Amino acid sequence: MTDFSDRHGLSVDSRLISFIEDRALPGTGVDAQKFWADFAALLTRFAPENAALLERREALQVQIDGWHIAREGQPHDAEAYQAFLYDIGYLVPEPVGFSVGTANVDPEIATMAGPQLVVPALNARFALNAANARWGSLYDALYGTDALDAPPARPGGYDADRGAAVIARAKAFLDEAAPLADGKWADWQGGQLTLADPSQWVGSKPGGILLKHNGLHIELAIDPDHPIGKTDPAGIADVILEAALTTIIDLEDSVAAVDGEDKILGYSNWLGLMRGDLTESFDKGGKTVTRAMVPDREWTSPEGTRFALHGRSVMFVRNVGHLMTTPMVRLPDGSEAPEGLCDAVITSLCALHDVKGLGELINSRAGGIYIVKPKQHGPEECAFTDRLFDAVEDMLGLRRHTIKVGVMDEERRTSANLAACIEAVKDRIVFINTGFLDRTGDEIHTSMRAGPMIPKGEMKASDWITAYEDRNVRIGLACGLSGKAQIGKGMWAMPDLMKAMLEAKIGHPKSGANTAWVPSPTAATLHALHYHAVDVFARQKEIAHETVPSLGRLLTIPVAHGRNWSEAEVRRELDNNCQGILGYVVRWIDQGVGCSKVPDIDDVGLMEDRATLRISSQALANWLLHGVCTAEQVDAALARMAAKVDAQNAGDPLYERLTPDGVAWQAARALIFEGVKQPSGYTEPLLHAYRQKKKAA
């Protein structure tokens, strides 16, 4: 039974009170009494406005549904549709040309280009791995994955043939990124190093040479006594790449946080990261291993000046969106407080330790607090976030715009009004990112009544997605983000398929995006190769004046016009979606795992989170609504796929088999059959309700 205590009219989970008063406030100079008084005042001010914004979402959706229903059976009139969206305020006029005014931003965000990790805040081990993934071994990344075009390593210890192929590939990379004045890296015998461009040699230390290319560092580990180094003519034991420049510590789609217990774990880990003292111990091979945050890296310049490079990824925290409330704080009327408001205050309080230099390590040398705000619908919601962050800054005694914001471009109303959204936060924005998974879920839900949607697998080839991705970069550049903020791209979801990632993901820097999401530290090291192959900031200048794809293309609705579905097509799509839903939900509900590698219907491991669940559940809800499939067919697919998911998880000792009377099965079924009426098609309300039911049992 959770204990609650009164704090200035708020009923607060006693565990949160202890965290705030015993751990988060001490040293910050913020008085506890004043904190709770200000927190209560902030909630009193912003909770009603938060509720009004959600009501506005629903009112717009009702109008859009009505428009489609009234025109059922008629050809889609794109011009009339766009005019209607302006009339109801879904679309707003483009702002007059402006440039963002964001200042005091760390170079990893503003002036460097490289990979970005996203990890669940509730998993300290994963968070530490990500924070420490700023530097990664290229030798290890090539040796241990399918990225290398060579036979896999033979079992039974180090495979010298595989190792030779790794070294050859790494030195070929050096030939491209930092060529020698004469000859190839494979021929370098050590001794005097003469580069074609001497300015690329930027540092040295005993056992190390530091190079720089496209703003990223490359470290050569020199150790003739190392098992690898002693076989190398120059004694090179490894090539270490600057990899994950930034990391998002996630309190949203990749976590299952449904109550005070869960939230406080996430806040606690974030505080530890901001103080630099987070550690995690675990068993590995029968031994206890303790992981901690790595220090900065010391070097000496060619001129003899000592300097340090940041040892860790610069960290953002992703708060939840505007939709959900949390039972850990109740307002004076007994209702739950908006979770996003609580996140804004508490994650900023934790980051105050970094701003004030209270911990052992520094995250932001520019003195910023970096918060990603997801699932915002249009510029009025972005403006609300801007005012909220103003209030948090005032509450914590921070100068204006200390709190920076990352805007996820993952909802249709935001995509269609992106410039206006950026303008609403123009003095604190440091990040826009396309989230095509959530964006697809919102595309289906917004146009739910327009007709049956094309299958999930065909969505990526839709014209609206191409327009969406291109518009994001070009609008970001037009608003002056280059050199001040990140323009990001989405996740590579297949962590075991690194060769395919290397072939496909170079498209992200080529598009002009200066960061993109990867699923692991190893993937970050490999993706870093793309930012050496492409000078992103030069690419941004090349495309800065290209035409922005039309709004009409973005608003193209992916309806399957006149399609006659075969029984096999319907069954395949039902099985595909039901398998994905069950495979994800069973871990979320039964184990509290918000993001993990889930085998798909073809047994390919995919990194799944709530965004992928949103697509699958909305796709089936849409097909049910329009009679493409029946409830009986969906239930039959759930039964077939439950058996498959059980088999795929047979090796997990924590796994609970799926049964129709189980909470996870009930949650999966509700996501489909109640999908039409879920707010914006989000999965959180149902997932939270069923997870709380599971925890209570």
TrEMBL record:
**Which terms are listed as keywords in the entry?**
Acyltransferase, Cytoplasm, Glyoxylate bypass, Magnesium, Metal-binding, Oxidation, Transferase, Tricarboxylic acid cycle
- Indicate which residues the UniProt annotation says bind Mg(2+): E410, D438
Gene3D superfamilies associated with the record: Malate synthase, domain 3, Malate synthase, domain III
Q: Which domain of life is it from?
A: Bacteria
Q: Detail which positions bind glyoxylate.
A: R318, E410, G435, F436, L437, D438
Domain named Malate synthase TIM barrel is located at 314-546
Question: Which pathway, per its entry?
Answer: Carbohydrate metabolism; glyoxylate cycle; (S)-malate from isocitrate: step 2/2
Domain Malate synthase G alpha-beta insertion intervals? 158-190
Q: Pfam families given for it? A: MS_C, MS_N, MS_TIM-barrel, MSG_insertion
KW Acyltransferase (keyword) present: yes
Please name the GO terms that the record assigns under molecular function.
Answer: malate synthase activity
Where does this protein hold acetyl-CoA?
V118, R125, F126, S254, R291, P519
Catalytic class of the enzyme: transferase
Keyword Lyase included in the entry's annotation? no
Q: Residue limits of the Malate synthase N-terminal domain?
A: 19-71
Q: What are the names of the required cofactors?
A: Mg(2+)
The active site is formed by R318 (proton acceptor), D609 (proton donor)
Domain (Malate synthase C-terminal) spans 570-671
The PTM Cysteine sulfenic acid (-SOH) maps to C595
Q: What is its EC number?
A: 2.3.3.9
- Give the reaction(s) catalysed: glyoxylate + acetyl-CoA + H2O = (S)-malate + CoA + H(+)
* Family that this chain belongs to: Belongs to the malate synthase family. GlcB subfamily.
Protein role: Involved in the glycolate utilization. Catalyzes the condensation and subsequent hydrolysis of acetyl-coenzyme A (acetyl-CoA) and glyoxylate to form malate and CoA.
Matching NCBIfam families: malate_syn_G (TIGR01345), PRK02999.1 (NF002825)
Q: What is this protein called?
A: Malate synthase G
Species name for this entry? Sphingopyxis jiangsuensis
Q: What is the lineage of its organism?
A: Bacteria, Pseudomonadati, Pseudomonadota, Alphaproteobacteria, Sphingomonadales
The protein's gene is named glcB
